[in-house]
Design goal:
- The chain has 2 domains: about 80 residues, no CATH class; about 35 residues, no CATH class.
- The chain has a two-stranded antiparallel ribbon with strand order 1-2.
- The chain has about 140 residues and is mainly alpha-helical.
- α1 packs antiparallel against α2 and α2 packs across α3.
């Protein structure tokens, strides 16, 4: 898959939409496609719980060309190759995230620990249909 879509990213202190971008307290735009792609893949890998913090730290050091032992550098490179193979196709990565969110919803309902950091967005009607305790002020996750 061609990664021309990973051209830029915007990091904002507040919620960002096209019409509110200039109202944010702080915005950072990154125009480095390699950095943008690396950040997207690492965030997805973290949210999907495909790798632990130590693995992703080694990848970050590898991608940042930071000095590290040859073993750690090789480990970071190996994990980075795996991340790219798993999540390099954005559509496949998005499908994985949707599946993980659905699985986590079932885990949440069964009072089991979640895997990763993904849950589906549910409307009030969908949450109620799922048997979740939806409250207008808090949604369905916040408990009293």
């Amino acid at each position: 898959m061609d990664n021309k879509k990973d051209c830029y990213l915007i990091i904002s202190h507040t919620g960002t939409t096209c019409d509110k971008l200039v109202r944010s307290k702080m915005n950072v735009a990154v125009l480095n496609p390699g950095l943008v792609r690396g950040l997207r893949l690492m965030l997805w890998a973290e949210h999907l719980a495909l790798y632990d913090e130590s693995d992703l730290f080694d990848v970050a050091r590898f991608l940042g060309r930071q000095q590290q032992s040859p073993e750690d550098s090789a480990r970071g490179e190996r994990i980075w190759q795996q991340v790219q193979e798993t999540l390099g196709d954005p559509f496949a990565g998005l499908r994985m995230m949707v599946e993980r969110a659905r699985d986590n919803l079932q885990r949440y309902k069964a009072k089991q620990p979640l895997v990763g950091q993904l849950l589906p967005y549910l409307t009030a009607e969908e949450a109620t249909h799922q048997g979740l305790n939806f409250r207008e002020a808090h949604g369905w996750i916040e408990e009293e």
